[in-house]
Fold these 2 entries.
Entry 1:
Amino acid sequence: MNIKKAVGFYETFERSGSPSRDTHYCAGCGHGIIHKLICEALVDFGLQDQTIMVNPIGCSVFGYYYWDVGNIGAAHGRAPSVATALARTLPGKTILAYQGDGDLAAIGFNATYQAASRGEHFATFFVNNATYGMTGGQLAPTSLVGQNTATSPGGRNPAFEGYPLHICETLNQLKAPVYIERCSVADSKRIMQTRRAIRKAIEIQRDYKGYAFIEILSPCPTNLRANAVEAARFVTEQMELEFPLGCFRDNTADAAPRVLRSATTNLHDLYATNAITAPPPPATKFVEKRMKFSGWGGQGILSLGIAMAEAGRFAGLHSSWFPSYGPEQRGGSASCTVVVSDKPIGSPDTTEPDVLVCMNRPAFERFASTVRPGGHLVCDALIGDTTDNAPAGIRMTIVPATKLAADFGVPQAANTVMLAVLNHLKASGIPKEQMLAALDASFAKKPKLIPINRRIFDQATTWCEENLPK
Amino acid sequence: MTIFVKGNEAVVVGALFAGCDAFFGYPITPASEITHAASSQFPALGREFLQAECETSAINMVYGAASAGKLAMTATSGPGMSLMQEGLSYMAGAELPGVIVNIQRAGPGLGNVYPEQSDYNQSVKGGGHGNYHSMVLAPGNVQEMCDLTIRAFEIAFRYRNPVIILGDAVLGQMMETLTLPDQESPRPDTIAWAVAGTAATRKNLITSIFLNAPLQEEHNIHLQQKYAAMTDDVMYEEYMVDDATIILTGYGISSRIARSAVDELRQRGMRVGLFRPITLFPFPTQALQRLAKDRTVMAVELSNGQFRDDVAFHLGCPIANIPLINRMGGMLITVEQVIEAVLTANK
């Protein structure tokens, strides 16, 4: 008999542990035929060197024994994720994923659906034999109603096991896929149609046009407890009733080659706008300051803290900023802690701040008693009457920061007023020059606001000179 | 040159200077800023960024890119890290390099988004199925969030093994000054093993399956030898230890709080020092053993003693010998709490 030798396979299957050309598949199994059709196409198109096959879990886990291309084994159901990364990091290569029904339609269905929806640039060969082959004939998402399996011993009962999943039909709801077809390897006529579909899917990859999905109905004689002929008949007479063959979509002619990313900057320039040469450390000793800023979200608490931390940094000090975050930032209170020091900072948090800024009443009630003896407590007049509960032994200053900001024409600038107050009080120990530099830096992305906030800083400073005790 | 950034953002700086080709992630507080920064900065350099549909997919994307010899990474927090354990086991089995950043939050379950260090065992002892270890690096400041990310890629490719950066919510969320790296790292040579869709790599194979049990055992022995060799790369920091009679030990944010406590206690005339492991696997066992001789060692951590137990294990002493200073549930230890515990232990 003159049988055409399969091409694109290794000469002998050394990886199987035996130097023969026998496969590990059962007689009558469809995998061998599908393997052959894929490899033949890769050889015909001259793609062997540039092809990577993502091997699945299941009977075809050992596909790499045979196909002479680059091979990667993926975890159960994860081939679409692996193939996605390959396609995106190796543009121009031919990426193929080979998956069975448990792998693709059960554990990995979301990965398949999402990859298809993104229009990832790879082809999937989905071998549907309506059962779990390697694991021992258990119920698959594609098992037929009434089908006896190791885990549906009375036959698949829709009341308990639901209905078979139709993957081509489901993927066909998505916009991105270029080509979707269901075919079969149950007889020679159908095999020729499968051959055409496989070649088309691979051509789409070669031409870099996008996602292709081929479902192939395939016989599993061993788990059907059938001989090869009966198993093939099961595919054509029963599976095809549930899973009709045909092309669901073919947009090959219209599909444009995928667009690649291109760099818009380089690593050096990426950070250049925010980068400064490290300032020299201060000439004189600096006593570490721990500062807490607290108030409502929207009062600019966090950016006030950043400005103070940046001022410390500009002064050549070690500087840290640690915010409240998470659900709190979506309304309600906001707070942050800033530490500036002439030595590496230990804890970036504090329970006894040297400086506490309270922009609302709850902050005052919660934190005022924590200020270290001799420390500064600076409050917005918004906190209201404090005659009954002003803490003793600290320097307390009340400033109508929110009102002043509105008076100065920028109601949102209460935090800039507060920065000026802290500077006037010399609360942080950081020189004015660096405070102003930090104020400017905080508006680096909106430079128009720099002169406005400088003006407010100056007006607030004047207000402090006129209204606060010397 | 220096910039002022969150620890989470510093991770991305480090990744880009390491030459990282691709970032695959899924947002989760308190790690999201890593994904945010990556989403703009990777594409700006023509590199790949993709927000995956889940953490399971993200880690398998890292697996895929690593298979091709690419530098790939992901970042997450506890719940996502749990989902990634499968992929980490496969990466370890298939000997794939990659960097996984875990900005720890409080657990178990959904827990909350505040700092904890309760993923210690998960990270250091394997975490997924099988006899494997990831190398685990624990940064202690924003600079190290960047620098150790660069180091992580170098180590990952040298050993062909996943490397975990075990941060925490404080390190991720806080801002500090970051000195930018001078230049991008040299690219590792992967042609001998990667599957890159080229003639030179066509015969390469990435898999973690050895159906033949003797071969699987051989593979396991090879992995164990690799993990043993990693002790060459241990890193740690000692602070004020020379004359110390009490050694505090902790990693990440706990070490920062302990450092403040050391400073305060020194001012009170107490001889206290700090031992900070920077590699958690491999653990700097010899260095700690040397230091612990005739001294009291106390563990500071944001977990239930996972770290303390490991310290006792590495010192070969009963757990009861190592006092535990800890908080859980997203509560930070205070400097005062550490001081109080040291004073109590020293009575």
Entry 2:
Amino acid sequence: MSDITSLESELINALAQLDEDRVYDLVRKTLDSGATSEQILNDMNVGMQKVGTIFESGEYFIADLMFAGMIYRSALDVLLPPQTSVSSVKKGRIVIGVVENDIHDIGKDIVVCLLSADNFDVIDLGIDMKPQAFVSAVQRYHPDIVMLSGMMQIARDSMQKTIDALKNAGLRDQLYILLGGGCVDPDILDYIDADAAAMELSDTLEKCNAYVSRRYQ
Amino acid sequence: MKNLVIGCRTLENELLAAMKLCEKTYTVRWIDARLHNVKEKLNHSLQSIIDSAQDYDRILMATGFCGNAIDGLKTSRIPVIIPRVDDCTSLLFNSCKNRQAHAGSYFLTEGWLRGDSNIWAEYQYSLKKYGEKLTQKIFRTMFEHYRQIALLDTGCYPIAPSLAQAQVIADTFSLECAVIPVTIDFLTQLLNGPWDSERFLTVLPNTEITASDLTVTC
């Protein structure tokens, strides 16, 4: 156990220091030492939080944040190889997209990767998706969950418009609508009519799992 | 009425031009554009200016909502007036909707190019730290969904030198380069008033800005 703790600590620091090769190496070693994917994912999230803190201090630039996101995304491929996640029965179906007028998708891509690895059937609509695109996707794919992602502040308006479009199409009540991305803050549900909002990756996974568990109990 | 203006250095050319056009000589407290990177820091800086503006009758914020950094600000005994736009780019487009017509554009002005945390400075930093190959990868990811570098021609600075810089940036990132004419109408309206509630958020004295206040004009 102490080895795992030590390796996890090294992994957190390697990610915080943006040491790409070392991150991949430590993910493999930590997995080999018996840590679960969830533990390692939590470690990487702690590492990303450290990156954010260093950025806030002014030591890191936006290029560093981008690089951190790229390392994180690639580390998931090491952590969650496809064969570990294959199951004929999916937990549930999710339609996800970056809402209209926003094109920032690194966070969304990471969430798609995590949810797919966690055995959800994920339909990724892409970026800058109009409300009608979500309506059409819901009509076509009949998902359990719709995830609206956005980074820019204007994305909040698009989120509400998307939810309104789903309501007008008579689809709202059958869906669990989850908001995510940089535009999400703790108060967002006060003025956007979604079911939940997630500010952390782990929170996203937990909320999706909790919902499908309730739905298919 | 004695007005204090809070202005962002990125819009210095435009705000000073608007002041001249409106024949206003209001005091301006400038905020550093780098504060935008961390919402909490920008919020604290704005709160500090609001708290210290005891000798004025009104604060005019020549900004947008700046990624909701104004959420939670508390006014003192004087009101604060803020354009209902998400950020200063929409301010120059005179509405969020006009800006949205240019999706896929990375916007620049002379003020942005002058700032020491601009995209070119980021690129130079990355080259030094990560080398050519990795920097190309990082910036390809960063600009994956952008199609052009768009220099906003506000009419408040000589366009040629900034356009030359914008062209270099566009060429480096394999993007198109465009010049888009915009206006300082929102700024002149802010300086002159009146401040109709469709286009301006008026925060009354001794009030806290909450998320529900932050609806933008279309």
